[in-house]
Amino acid sequence: MTKEYKLFIEGKWTDAVSGKTFETYNPGTGEVNAVVAEAGKEDVDRAVQAARNAFESNEWKNMPPGERGRLLFMAALKMREKIEHLAEVESRECGLTIKETQFIALPATIDVLEFYAGLANKVQGETLASPPDRLNYTIREPLGIIGAVVPWNFPLMLAMWKIAPALAAGNTIVLKPAEQTPSSLLELMEIFQEAGIPDGVINVVPGFGKEAGSALVSHPGIDKIAFTGSTATGRFIMRAASQHLKPLSLELGGKSPNIIFEDANLANAVRMAAFGIYFAQGQVCAAGSRIFVQDSIYDDFMDAFVKQAKSIKVGNQLDMATQMGPQISQAQLERIEDYVAAGLDEGANLLTGGERLASRDGFFYTPTILENVSNEMRIAQEEIFGPVASVIRFKDEEDALRKANDTIYGLAAGVWTNDIKRGHRMARGLKSGTVWLNTYSLLDSAAPFGGTKQSGFGRELGIQAMDMYTETKHVWVDLNPDAIDWYGA
């Protein structure tokens, strides 16, 4: 059943000034999922002003931090009560399987909100070491109005990575969800209202990047930009933010290596290599899309890995038995097909997959494995954002490290070995924001996440994320009874 959504500005549901709407689609069927008000520049202006009014009124930023935390925790409790509903809304629109949303993405989202609810009254400055005639201390203050642009692959979770720390610190926020997947975030606003979050603290302006997104990231009333998405869009946002010298955090693309040494637990490595590339249809920024396998175990690993990929059940994302749902769109499906064709043209071998699931409507692609891949091929250097594993041989530790780091990206990496010294050497040598040892693609609300090189900068999650949503103020108190008489006789 098609649902209609409006913009959410200053606690009210409102039409776009232009009166325009757009449609979202169920990627598993291609059918219309929702009709959504389309925000433009004037709507972004309204949302930013609403966030500014809420911030300057002091109701939120000067609320006792513990009370802010309790309201955020109340929102988390209400999310738990509606987790099945939110999971279905999200799966229907973004293509994640219902098992992925209900048992992984939504619980992780709620955990993030609970983590920062507990951190709200722990944003602290420092008393500095000073001579006895003075007192120096710092305080952490909210930045102001946060502009957040979030992608379509994990709509609620990646939005919460920004909402939770921003609000815990006392900021207000304007969010622009991806035009493919605004529904679950708009549903979330009803929950935040029920929890008692004041009007204007959170505002949502669904629309398209060229209109709503550009207006938001270039708006002079925004004090900081938080973005998750492609590296190309990240470059555009940096240019836009530079006009007003806005601070920004960017969590961008990746081409992450998953390195399997000969002494690894092979069964575990196979299972998690499959999870690392096929979870969420491979539409994950940290996906382990380059799988490096040591020569001596290559054949054994590949036999088991191909068998694992072929066993994955692809189909209706709302069926609890489905293990991999559809890609987000026809355009994304064609992008994946183009990359696989390019890999084959460059000399890679197709072991399994490499085709659409012809028996179904929607945008389904089969789990794919390409071998005989060299690190110079496009499929090894460019982000595909789909269920395509490029498998590369390596000889030894030095060879693995050199090949793994030979990319413009540096978001994440995995290492499989039972040699503890080797594991730590590899962790130090890999140029990435996260290194998983003997696992892959797991997250923790308390652990910082972000990239290096062209995978972006700044860290989301963990205590470290609060640094991105606060600024330090230094206070100097002169304790001398008399002022310095610099110009005295």
UniProtKB/TrEMBL annotation:
Protein name: Aldehyde dehydrogenase family protein
Recorded family membership: Belongs to the aldehyde dehydrogenase family.
KW Oxidoreductase (keyword) present: yes
Keywords: Oxidoreductase
A molecular-function term among this protein's GO annotations: oxidoreductase activity, acting on the aldehyde or oxo group of donors, NAD or NADP as acceptor
Biological source species: Siminovitchia fortis
InterPro entries: Ald_DH/histidinol_DH, Ald_DH_C, Ald_DH_CS_CYS, Ald_DH_CS_GLU, Ald_DH_N, Aldehyde_DH_dom
Domain of life: Bacteria
Pfam families cross-referenced by the UniProt entry: Aldedh
Domain Aldehyde dehydrogenase: 13-475
Transmembrane segments: none
Catalytic residues in the record: 251
